[in-house]
Specification:
- There is one protein chain.
- With 438 residues, the chain is of the alpha/beta class.
- Helix content is 29%, strand content 25%.
- It has 12 helices and 21 strands.
- Strands 4, 14, 15, 16, 17, 18, 19, 20 and 21 form a 9-stranded mixed sheet that branches. It has an 8-stranded parallel β-barrel with strand order 5-6-7-8-9-11-12-13, surrounded by 7 helices.
- α2 runs parallel beside α9, α5 packs across α6 and α8 packs parallel to α9.
- It is globular, with a radius of gyration of 23 Å.
C-alpha cells in the first residue's frame, strides 16, 4: 500500500510512522508538519556503510549529501552511523560545525564558493574542498597561503554522461554549470595547473552525473570514464590520484511505478568495474567515496496537511486544497515531481476518483499532486504526502509570507521536535523600516 517501509496502518485505521500515530502528531504539532523516521534513516545509512565495507574492503567512505536535508539533528545521526557528509554552502558547513560534526569527515562542494565560504572551510579544516573552476582554485590557494595552511583538494569533473533524468538535475554532461570538462581538455589542464601551486595538495577527482537515476549503466560508465582519466593523469603528469568520488544520484520510490536499484547491488556492480579497470590499467585502487543523500532520507519522511476547501468543477477537475503547498514542497512546481499520498485519518476509505491536491499559495502552479486516485475527502481530513524527507524542508521558502513548518523526528513511538516551526514574528524579524519612512 505504501511506497515507504516507514509507514504502517495502526489499529485506529490511522497512518503510523516510526510507531507514532499521524493523527496524534497533528494534534500535538499542527499542520503542515514534516515527519522523519529515525529508524529508517539509520537503516539506510547502515546499508551504504556495510556495502562499502564489503565491496571495497573498507577502503572508502560514504558521505551523506546533506543538501537533501540539513539540520543539526540529522548530522548527529549520520555521524553516529559512521558516515561523513558533503556540504554545498557556508550555511550547511556552519550547521554541521555547530552540531559538533567532525570536520575531518566533511567535503565541501559548490560551483561558486564565495571567498567567505572558502575562508570558513579552511579555518574549520574540512577534509576536502572539491574545486569547481580555475577562479576558485586560485582563491583556495591564496586563502590557504594567507592562513599558513595547505588545503587538500579534489576536482569536480564532467564525465560527459547523459543520466536519463530531468534536464534540471543532470550534471555530468559538458553543458552544465558544474565542474570542468574532459572533452575539451579543461580537466587535465586545471590539474596540471594545481600541481604548480604551493598551498594546495591534489588528492582526488569527483563526478556526479545527476539525480533520481534508476539505471546501473550510467554509474558504471562514470566509474570507467573517471578511472581512465586517473590513468591519463598519471601517464601525462606523474600525479597519482589517491581518491575517487563517484557522487550520488541513486533513485528512490516516490510512486508505486518506480523501481529503484537496491543500493547494495549498485555498489557491488560499480566496485567490479572499478577493480577491473584498476587492474587493467595497472593503477592503484583509489580510496572510494560516494554521496547518497535523497536515498538516505527521502523515504523516511512524510508531510502531513489538513484539508481546507474542496472544489469540484464538474467534468473538469476536483481540487482539494491543503494548508501547505509549494512553500514547503516546491518540487512539483519545479520538476513536476511525482508523489503518492494517503488519507491519514481514514486509511480504509475506498478510492472514489481523481483529485488534484493543491496548495494555498497564490499561484496556479501551486500543486502537490495532480490527478491522484483518492478517497472522498472533506474539510478537516488529514492528507499525508509520502517520501518528502529530501528536498522539501531544504527547499522550503516563505513565499506569500507563509511560515515554514516544524520538523519532527519519530522513533519507536516517541516524537521529538528537531526544527521549530516559524510563526509570524519570525516572518517579520529581519524587516527594517527606515527612519525616513516613519
Amino acid at each position: 500500500m505504501f511506497v515507504s517501509e516507514a509507514l504502517k496502518t495502526n489499529s485506529a485505521n490511522h497512518l503510523e510512522i516510526g510507531g507514532c500515530d499521524a493523527v496524534e502528531l497533528v494534534e500535538k504539532y499542527g499542520t503542515p508538519l514534516y515527519v522523519m523516521d529515525e529508524g529508517l534513516i539509520r537503516k539506510n545509512c547502515r546499508i551504504y556503510k556495510n556495502a562499502m565495507d564489503k565491496h571495497y574492503n573498507g577502503n572508502g567512505m560514504v558521505l551523506y549529501a546533506s543538501k537533501a536535508f540539513s539540520a543539526m539533528a540529522i548530522y548527529k545521526i549520520v555521524d553516529s552511523e559512521g558516515l561523513g557528509i558533503d556540504v554545498v554552502s557556508g550555511g550547511e558547513l556552519y550547521t554541521a560545525y555547530k552540531a559538533g560534526f567532525p570536520m575531518d569527515k566533511v567535503y565541501f562542494h559548490g560551483n561558486n564558493k564565495t571567498v567567505g565560504e572558502i575562508e570558513l572551510a579552511v579555518d574549520k579544516n574540512v577534509k576536502r574542498i572539491v574545486v569547481d573552476n580555475f577562479e576558485e582554485l586560485k582563491n583556495i590557494d591564496r586563502i590557504a597561503g594567507e592562513k599558513g595552511k595547505k588545503a587538500c583538494i579534489s576536482f569536480r569533473i564532467k564525465p560527459g554522461i547523459d543520466a536519463h533524468t530531468h534536464d534540471f538535475v543532470q550534471t555530468g554532461q559538458i553543458d552544465s554549470k558544474f565542474g570542468v570538462a574532459l572533452e575539451n581538455g579543461e580537466a587535465l589542464e586545471i590539474i596540471k595547473y594545481a600541481s604548480t601551486l604551493k598551498n594546495v595538495s591534489v588528492v582526488g577527482v569527483h563526478c556526479h552525473i545527476g539525480s533520481q537515476i534508476f539505471d546501473l549503466g550510467p554509474f558504471e560508465l562514470a566509474a570507467k570514464v573517471m578511472l581512465e582519466f586517473i590513468s591519463q593523469i598519471k601517464t601525462e603528469t606523474g600525479i597519482e590520484i589517491e581518491e575517487l568520488n563517484l557522487g550520488g544520484g541513486f533513485g528512490i520510490k516516490y510512486i508505486p511505478e518506480h523501481d529503484p536499484i537496491e543500493y547494495d547491488n549498485y555498489i557491488e556492480s560499480v566496485s567490479k568495474v572499478v577493480k577491473g579497470i584498476c587492474e587493467d590499467k595497472r593503477i592503484k585502487l583509489p580510496y572510494i567515496v560516494m554521496e547518497p543523500g535523497r536515498s538516505i532520507v527521502a523515504s523516511a519522511g512524510i508531510t502531513l496537511y489538513k484539508v481546507g476547501a474542496v472544489k469540484e468543477i464538474k467534468n473538469v477537475r476536483t481540487y482539494v486544497s491543503v494548508d501547505g503547498g509549494m512553500a514547503d514542497n516546491p518540487r512539483y512546481a519545479l520538476y513536476q515531481s511525482p508523489y503518492d499520498a494517503v488519507l491519514a485519518n481514514r486509511l480504509d476509505a475506498p478510492k472514489n476518483g481523481l483529485i488534484t491536491i493543491a496548495g494555498k499559495c497564490c499561484e496556479s502552479g501551486d500543486i502537490l499532486i495532480k490527478d491522484i486516485n483518492f478517497p472522498k475527502v472533506q474539510s478537516g481530513d488529514i492528507i499525508a504526502v509520502m517520501a518528502t524527507g529530501a528536498y522539501n524542508y531544504s527547499m522550503s521558502s516563505n513565499y506569500n509570507r507563509i511560515p515554514r513548518p516544524p520538523v519532527v523526528l519519530v522513533h519507536e513511538g516517541k516524537s521529538r521536535l528537531i526544527v521549530k516551526g516559524e510563526d509570524y514574528e519570525d516572518i517579520v524579524r529581519n524587516d527594517i523600516i527606515p527612519d525616513d519612512l516613519v
